[in-house]
Structure formats: C-alpha cells, structure tokens
Amino acid sequence: MPVTNNIIMRSKVLLSLSTAVVTVSAFIFAASCSKSNSNSANNYSYTSDHVLLEKSFDDAQSIVDEAAATVTGGGLSTYRTTATYPKVVNDTIDNIVSVDFGPTDILGKDGVSRRGAVTVTYSKDTKYRDAGSVHTITFNKFYHNDNQLLGSKIITNMGNNLYGQPYFSITTSGYIELADSAGLISWNCARTRTWVTGFTTLGDCTDDSYQLTGHSTITRADHSVISADITQSLVTSVGCRWIEKGIVKYTLIDGSTSIIDFGVGNCDAQATLTVNGIAHNIIMQ
C-alpha cells in the first residue's frame, strides 16, 4: 500500500511522509498509514518504540558506569544532576552501585527527567571495570521522561579490543511502561557496546561515545512483534541528543522491511527513512 497522509501521533511524535521532510521529537521516530493493523508494512510507529528502548536502556548503563567511578556517597557529574540528586552509594564490599534520583522528577542538564533508582550488582572478586566482570542492572521505580523502565540488563566486560577500547557483551530483557498508561513495550536484545571515546576520563561522561551492534526483538503494546537488526553500527554520544550514525533494518512478521539511516557521524538532526524503496528526509527536533 502506498504511503498516505494518515498520521499517528504519540508522545510528541510527528512524522509526515506526505512531504519530503519529516519532523520528529528527539530520539523518537514514528509514521503510519494504518491505525487498524500495526503489523502492516505501512505502519512505521514501531521505530519510535525501538529508539525509545535503545536510548533509555543505554542511558541507564551510562548512569551506573559513571557512578561506579565516583567515591562512596559521591554524585554524578553536573551534566546529569541538579540540586542534591542523584545520590550515589558505591558499596565496594558487596559490589553494588545504587543511583537514586529521588521520588519526584529532577531535570538533568541533558534535558531528561528522571526519578527512582538504578542499581547495578557486579561479580565478586573483580573490580567494576575489570575484564570478565559481569554487571546486572535492575530498576526500582525508575522513570525516564515518565516512562518506567523494568526488567534487567546483563553486561559482561570483554576487555579491550585491538584499538584499546573497552567493549561489552550485553543481554537485555527489558520493558518500558509508557507514560499516560499508553501500554507496555518489551524487548529481548543482544548487543556489543564499544566505548569509543571518554574511557580515559572516568567520572566525566560528557566526552563519552559508543558504538552499538546486534539484534533485538520488540513486542509492542498491541502485542505485535518486530525484529530490529543494526546493519551498520549505531553511534551515540552522551553530549549529543541524537543518534549520530548507523543503520537499522526492521522486519515485520509478514516479512516486509524498512530502514532508518542516522547519517555519517555528525551531531545533527538529519536522518533518512526508506520505505518501499522510497527515501524520506527526517529532521529531528
């Protein structure tokens, strides 16, 4: 079916395929020409679910990575925190790092509102950043822009690659309870996360950037299932609000596909959505 002007709007998302330019809110991309069949090849709002999962769970890992580099009772960098939150407890005896943003939303200097706690438990007889160390991230009433994160993320430190960059094998069984009772989305995800820059400046996350590769399966709020394959490594930076580089291929249960290309590595709002062989420019805001 050709793309039409029938647009689904959700959570500040606006993506119009009726023109050459598409506008979307930061980190969220959606378009649709079918409200009745979410598994149709022409319903592209699953891209919003995928990017929300990607950015939210990656954010949680960045939080505990930075917190693990602080002293007991210390706080995160001013990039992430305001006022007295978040509070960090780095328990080096039981190998637990807890980051508590408090019971009410606080707005970080990265523009994200957070509340609740993120906890990581890492394997005994290793330091947090040792090769072979296994970390398990869990959540206690943790909300990221009013979306609640649930489930767990297991990270194995694989040491350094040939370029001296730390890299990690990641398995996520995660859920997001969407804001405003919009439903539950989940994913099962296998990732390799390479810490490209910033790993020599521990305690300062502002210069951190990462490459992500791997496969995930997304179950949407309407129970439809989507596969997402990173065909070119995603590049994300803590200091940039957008995914800067990479390509993701989505496969629906009927075998139809679509592709999002996030560009060549610039921190800008440009991306491209290709549907039925037709490329559409995307401008993120």
Structural description of this entry:
- By secondary structure, this protein is mainly β.
- The chain has one domain (48-259).
- It is 8% helix and 46% strand.
- It contains 1 helix and 15 strands.
- The protein has a 15-stranded mixed beta sheet that branches.
- It is globular, with a radius of gyration of 19 Å.
- The relative contact order is 0.16.
Strand segment count: 15
Order of helices and strands: EHEEEEEEEEEEEEEE
Task: Characterize the largest beta sheet: strand count, sense, and whether it forms a barrel.
Answer: 15 strands, mixed
Please work out how many helical segments DSSP would assign.
Answer: 1
Low-confidence stretches: 1-42
Oligomer: single chain
Shape field: globular
**Rg from Cα:** 19 Å
Helix content: under 10%
Number of domains: 1
Q: Strand-residue fraction?
A: over 45%
- Average pLDDT metric: 78
Cα(first) to Cα(last) distance is 29 Å
What class would the helix/strand composition place it in? mainly beta
